[in-house]
Amino acid sequence: MLEATYKPAGDTALRVRGLSKRFEGAAAPVWSDISFDIPHGQRVAIIGGNGAGKSTLLRCCMRLIEPDAGEVFFGDRSLSGLRGRELAKARARVGFVFQKHNLVSRLSVLTNVLHGGMAWARTPRMWFHGIATDEHRNYALHCLERVKLGHLCERRADELSGGQSQRVAIARALMQKPKMIFADEPVASLDPQAGEDVMQVFSDLACDESLTLLFVTHHLEHALRYADRVLGLQDFRLGLDASSDSLSARQLRGMYE
Ligand SMILES: Nc1ncnc2c1ncn2[C@@H]1O[C@H](COP(=O)(O)OP(=O)(O)OP(=O)(O)O)[C@@H](O)[C@H]1O
Predict the structure, then answer these.
(1) Which amino acid residue places its CA nearest to atom 28 of ligand 1?
(2) What does the domain layout of the chain look like in residue ranges?
(3) Residues in a beta bridge with 182
(4) Alpha-carbon gap, residue 227 to 244, rounded angstroms
(5) Which atom belonging to ligand 1 lies closest to the Cα atom of 65?
(6) Which residues of 2-30 are buried (b: 16+ CB within 10 A; e: fewer)?
(7) ipTM, 2 dp
(8) Per residue in 186-237, pLDDT tens?
């Protein structure tokens, strides 16, 4: 592994131990024996070539994909063996942001954000604008303000730019009051400036609110600028685990050779 300069500090938000995954029928594992600890509030980039298993790793960390071996802990709590409501409750600690924002186009921005509260809703209906309580609407507005889009709350989602839509998707993830944000190539389809704006929002959330951030990216400059630490997947294993301060763009490019 490339020089592991990262030294764990503080309480652990996410602990991964000995994780391995091979898809059925595949000749080789996606990766094997992956272990790392992420302290609360750390910003971590996951890099690696196409097919290195970045998305699979992110999903295995929530058991959206079942690993073949190993264990994942949120804090001290192991996800192994959790089922149904217990697993859903544990997963609700993580706000997941995808490459595609998946907003409901004909609904307002505020209603889309309210949908993020479904993770802890008793009845889904209460998450529609007009039915939701003032308390929930105010919280949704607060989440929108955290991504600097409070002024667009009444706009239809299909009238937003790509960058604005992704920021609404982040606000929707914040609505579930997560401890961690996992983001899978969140700026892949955005222009450079919108991509920077979205990465800055993530970074501010991690720095100002101690939200732990784990994001997959192919933008090496984002890994260096917006992450405290970089994990790199290469040759079916974790080939890099180092603080971004200690890395150069040339070293990161080496993960793609
Ligand atoms: N559900 C699945 N069933 C079978 N194989 C899968 C499945 N999901 C992913 N794979 C395979 O696992 C490998 C890793 O895929 P993954 O999407 O995690 O890679 P990635 O590093 O995120 O790639 P990219 O940078 O192209 O998005 C690939 O070979 C992919 O084809």
Answers:
(1) 51
(2) 8-93+180-189+211-257, 95-178
(3) 96, 214
(4) 7
(5) 1
(6) beeebeeeeebbbbbeebbbbeeeeeebb
(7) 0.97
(8) 999 899 999 999 999 999 999 888 899 999 999 999 999 999 999 999 999 9
223's enclosing H/E stretch is: helix 220-226
As given in the structure block, the two tokens for residue 255 are: 């993960």
Tokens describing residue 257: 């050779």
What number of residues does the chain have?
Answer: 257
Place of tokens 């938000």: 13
The closest-lying atom of ligand 1 relative to the alpha carbon of residue 52 is 21
95-178: which CATH architecture? Answer: 3-Layer(aba) Sandwich (3.40)
pTM listed for this prediction: 0.91
Assigned architecture for domain 8-93+180-189+211-257: 3-Layer(aba) Sandwich (3.40)
Q: Is the dihedral of CA 121, 124, 126, 127 positive or negative?
A: positive
CA distance 171 to 168: 5
- Within 6 Å (CB) of ligand 1, which residues are found? 23, 30, 48, 50-56
Give the neighbor-by-neighbor strand order of the sheet with 69-74: 31-39, 12-21, 69-74, 77-78
Nearest CA to ligand 1 atom 13: 51
* Domain 8-93+180-189+211-257 shares a fold with domain 95-178: yes
